[in-house]
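Q: A reviewer asked whether we had any structural model of the full assembly, not just the individual parts. We don't, so I'm hoping you can provide one. Inputs are below.
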Amino acid sequence: MESGALGKTYEPGEVIVRQGEVGDCMFVIQSGRVEVVHTGDGREVQLAIRGEGDFFGEMSVFEREVRMATVRALDPVRVLTVDKKNLLKRFREDPSLAFRIVENMSHRIRELSERVASAGTTE
Amino acid sequence: MARRAGLEISLDIFERRDFSTVGPGGCNMCGGIISESLVQTLATEGINLPPTVVERGIDSYVLHMDEGSVHIETPLHEKRIGSVHRGAGPRGLREKKWGSFDGHLLDLAVGNGANLIRGRVDEIVLSDGKPTLGVKGGEASSYDLLTVATGVNTSTLKIIENLGIPYRSPKTTATYISEYYIGNDLVEKTLGSSMHVFLLAMDRVEFAAIIPKGDFISVCILGHGIDDKVFHSFLGHPSVRTCFPEGWAPPPDHCHCAPRMNVRGAVQPYGDRIVFIGDAGASRLYKDGIGAAYRTAKAAANTAVFEGISSAAFKKHYAPACRRLEFDNSIGKAVFLVTKELQRRGFERRAVLTMTAKEQLKASGRRMSTVLWDTFTGSSSYREIFIRSLHPFFLGTLFRELAAALVSRADGWTVPSPKKSPPAEVSQ
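A: Here is a predicted structure for the entire assembly that you could use as a starting point for your response.
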């Protein structure tokens, strides 16, 4: 069955994207899990864990900034790379394709807002 | 999309094929390649293709010409092209290991609320302007919108042409597809994760491909008047033999078909409350038919959800998507004229092979490789391929290689390549 596995496989601990690097693609997880970590002041903070069907690295499709976090494989993970150029061309032809990404980003903003709010309450 | 727009719709899908059936009864007769761009787009939509459906992930192409072969790898070394069987598998399948691609999509649609009606549509009429459909032995039902996604190998399009609407079905050409069982291990050994494409100096053969798929090898030939004689002469060509195990001979009984494929889009693939998508409407020339079906389906759905289902709405918002495909196909015809020219002259073939092979030794600047990759994979439009082939660096290098090939001797010439795969052996 593995002959039909699309994407690229990463071993646990292997870095898929590195904080500070310039990105020109996003990734869709086909199987397994990854962790998203941010390093600042020499300290590493886990921001999220993403699993099958989730995507990451989508900010580089919309911004010309460097990657703001590192993404590492937690399990043997299979990931499909989606090229920025291909995606932008498809958005131009079919803007509704962006709905799912926008929905997902909106969901993440909501999650972050709730975390900030709850952090404020506990202080 | 309708759900996101707050639109309540009910969807009936008429499908006579049972995709769990092995052989022609469950097959939609197709090469079964999911292009790189479609794999990425579907993943963005949330439709991931599992390894239980994709029979082989493809990360490279091998271009075969009479003078030699060259291996073209994707820069990312990632499997982003999928080979699938549209049904449960060819006649002669010994063990069901993979599911049907069409069955997988149908299950997703049903899982999202579509209602599946099993049966062949044998009656289509317009009643008070609304399409009414009936299946054999069932009651006819009336619909607000009829989306025709039948392909071109069906008599249903003739029924629709007789409805008195301006629609005329697409112009088609015959293709020839054969499926040979050799077992997963031998497929891995002989073809690996590469699709093999052939530009050979053979009469009537315009383009041919050999695709690894699970336990099978699929052979697809496009051209004019392809018959058994042409097909067997193709199978006997020395370049083609390298794709099969040593000593292999085509079995007398194997699954094969000669389906028609769209080479010019339909006339007015829309009307009031009716729209034609995929091959029945517009497609891409010689490649990525499934990708074209997805794009036309999305354009039709966007129109229906956001603009309406009148002929005027489809004319304004759906027809441009079909026109874009048709315009690109006209450039594609020019691209294939050039490849036809390449098939004729030995020195041109040697120049292309040398240029590509040299590029494969480098990490960047792979201009010929990307032009060939995109021509055969369907990853880019023909327009983009054409524009890229006009780049001065591309033309300069090509002319230099052409001049070198013209003055060099043909005998003893080999493709400059660091890689040579050992010949495959029969182990069964």
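A: Points you may want to mention in the reply: Residues 335-407 of chain B form one domain. The interface with chain A takes residues 1, 4, 37, 39-41, 43-46, 48-57, 76-80, 82-83, 97-98, 184, 188, 193, 214, 295, 298-299, 302, 321, 324, 379 of chain B (CB under 8 Å).
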